[in-house]
Design goal:
Layout lengths: L4 E2 L2 E4 L20 E3 L4 E6 L6 H12 L4 E2 L2 E7 L2 H6 L14 H4 L9 H13 L10 E7 L5 E6 L4 H13 L5 E5 L16 E8 L8 H22 L7 E12 L11 E3 L16 E5 L4 E3 L6 E3 L13 E11 L2 E3 L3
Parallel strand pairs: 2-16, 3-17, 4-6, 4-7, 7-10, 8-9, 9-11
Antiparallel strand pairs: 1-2, 5-6, 8-10, 11-16, 12-13, 13-14, 15-16
GO molecular function, one term: metal ion binding
Main location: membrane
Pfam families: AstE_AspA_cat (PF24827), AstE_AspA_hybrid (PF04952)
Length: 337
């Protein structure tokens, strides 16, 4: 995504005649945009079987037989039931890395990883990815062990997503509400939310894996309720005014220091721990080695997130770094017949 530096932050406008951001666009006058109504929404949980908030939000929706919310047909989906049953992130393969075009179209057999077969089942049920028959909006619920508050994570930034982010920011005050954008082509986008016409993950933390916290559950449940509330009001004809929101765009991942055998030799520095989304400047501490030496950040000032995420040790990621961008978006309302 093309960006213009403004101090540590960037500011982008997007074309008023497009529902999605265009990487090559210059700033233009924001005009009102009409979008198609959204009639089908999937609320998904348990993509990672030990992230308990989404598991129990979906189970509660299924228990109450939630199928409709005003103008919406709502489908609650427990996405990785085998992993949920054993309370593990996954059984064979990380399901939330199985939704690239290549993996969704690959031939599978009974000996293929369970999560790869499950990804294709979900794509058939809720998609297909990029298809006209896909659900209008897919929301996938996750937990992180990092101190990230409530985050919406998405690939393409469309008008609907930006409006939902702003709506949640105006309605939720108990935790910070932020957005993370993964600047990856749709064909290579790997997580479940890309199956819907619109989609995002909701990431809430800190919460240990395999543990359910009421405060974290309530924040995620509020975000789900606000999403459905927004869409009902949108479908009913309300005009939502334009505005601005910030998003953190992933730049790179940082691994732990390691020795020649691949063993970790340092932990996250105490001054960095729990300081997700706080600007990291050159010279700031990153790691504290087991022998007591400090490893500092060198280079561009960036924003860290997923700091010391438990599930990312296996991926050799200590934290990720992002740039902050401000996006302008137009007013929107539903298309009239």
């Amino acid at each position: 995504m093309s960006e213009t530096e403004t101090s540590h932050d960037d500011k982008s406008c997007v074309p008023a005649d497009s529902p999605t951001l265009d990487n090559s666009s210059s700033c233009t006058q924001m005009e009102h945009v009409s979008l198609a109504p959204l009639s089908r929404v999937a609320i998904c949980g348990g993509t990672h079987g030990n992230e308990m908030t989404g598991v129990y939000i979906v189970k509660e929706m299924q228990r109450k037989k939630v199928k409709a919310a005003g103008s919406l047909y709502v489908t609650p989906v427990l996405t990785n039931p085998r992993a949920v049953e054993v309370c593990r992130r996954y059984t064979d393969k990380d399901l939330n890395r199985c939704f690239t075009d290549a993996l969704l179209s690959s031939p599978v057999t009974d000996s293929a990883p369970y999560e790869l077969r499950r990804a294709q089942e979900l794509n058939a049920q809720l998609g297909p990815k990029g298809g006209k028959e896909a659900v209008d909006l897919l929301v996938d619920l996750h937990n992180t062990t990092a101190n990230m508050g409530l985050c919406l994570i998405f690939y393409s930034l469309d008008w609907l997503t930006l409006h939902l982010l702003k709506y949640m920011q105006n309605k939720i005050s108990s935790v910070p509400v932020r957005a993370i954008q993964l600047d990856i082509p749709l064909s290579d986008a790997y997580s479940l939310e890309v199956v819907g016409k619109h989609g995002f993950a909701i990431e809430v933390g800190p919460q240990p894996h395999g543990v359910l916290r009421a405060d974290i559950f309530n924040v995620a449940k509020k975000a789900v309720d606000l999403t459905l509330e927004f869409i009902q009001e949108f479908n009913a004809g309300r005009t939502f005014e334009g505005g601005e929101v910030e998003a953190f765009t992933l730049v790179k991942s940082i691994d732990y220091p390691r020795d020649s055998s691949g063993e970790i030799t340092a932990a996250i520095h105490p001054e960095l721990q729990d300081n997700d989304f706080q600007l990291l400047r050159s010279g700031d501490p990153l790691f504290l080695s087991f022998s007591g030496e400090t490893v500092i950040h060198e280079g561009e000032d960036l924003y860290p997130f997923f700091i010391n995420e438990c599930a990312y040790y296996e991926k050799k990621v200590a934290f990720q770094l992002a740039r902050k961008t401000t996006y302008s978006f137009p007013s929107v309302s539903v298309e009239k017949d």
